[in-house]
Amino acid sequence: MERSVTEQIEEDIVFGIYAPGTHLVEEPLQKRFGLSRYTLRAVMTELEQSGLVKKIPNRGVQVVEPCPDEIDELYAVRELLEVRAAELTPLPAEPWLLEELEALGNAHAAANKAGDMRAAFRLNVEFHRVQFQACPNCKLREAIKEYERKVHLVRAAAYGNPGHLDRVVAQHREIVAALASDDTARYAEAVRSHLPASTEAYRRAWMVKHGAKASGEIATASPADPWRTLDRTARTPAGGKSGAVKPRRHGGGSRSRLVTS
Predict the structure, then answer these.
(1) Distance between CA atoms of 223 and 226, rounded to whole angstroms?
(2) Which sign does the torsion angle of CA 217, 221, 223, 226 carry?
(3) CA angle (96, 168, 99) in 5-degree steps
(4) Do the beta carbons of residue 55 and residue 61 sit within 8 Å?
């Protein structure tokens, strides 16, 4: 299935093509996706609603860079929502759902082994979309999806850590095994334990980038941009186009226009 423009830009934000703090410029994005200004601004509105960008008066649209404490708060909400969904889920899950999750988990593991982090990201999103279909509360499912998108930026830091995706693969298998059982406590714990590692990775990456203090210690690791640890295939924009858009203003005649509301 062809991904929407919103999904492609979202993925490029996740993998640092449009890094936190980047101003998104209209002309390159219009040219890349063949969009009118009106349609592009609708895409930016959708990305803003998902929490990935913010509109700044008279300055355009900028990729957000939440501080670690904000990410911790978002993950606290995610834990409340997802664990509650697990507690409400009838077990064992339907055979069709278990089969689909197993297939997605295997595909995710294969993408991880091949080093295809973009495919791993998409398969991870789809895995959890299917997983929470087992929850009978549709409003809870909608809230889970909303807050899951708000923390997509965190994955850029986590995916650069050796062994992270291997742990995710193992956790996916435990989620499927718990869904196949009649043990609600086991499933709720599998859901809970799947969340914390990502926020810890983001905090370390944020400290490296900003030289910030945390718990009385100063991060001294490098490089300054933790997203550069991602492999080259992940850093390539969806569709194989040019890299990150950076705001440039030219003197005289024409100048780049930032995406504005």
Answers:
(1) 6
(2) negative
(3) 10
(4) yes
Task: Report whether 245 contacts 28 (CB < 8 A).
Answer: yes
CA nearest neighbour of 126 among 108, 144, 146: 108
Q: Is the peptide bond before 162 cis (omega within 30 degrees of 0)?
A: no
Nearest CA to 155 among 116, 124, 133? Answer: 124
Q: What is the pLDDT along the chain (261 residues), one digit of tens a residue?
A: 457 899 999 999 988 899 888 999 989 999 999 999 999 999 999 999 988 999 998 888 999 988 889 988 998 999 999 999 999 999 999 999 999 999 999 999 999 999 998 999 999 999 999 999 999 999 999 999 999 988 887 776 677 677 888 999 999 999 999 999 999 999 999 999 998 655 776 787 788 888 765 444 433 333 334 444 444 445 556 555 544 444 444 444 444 444 444
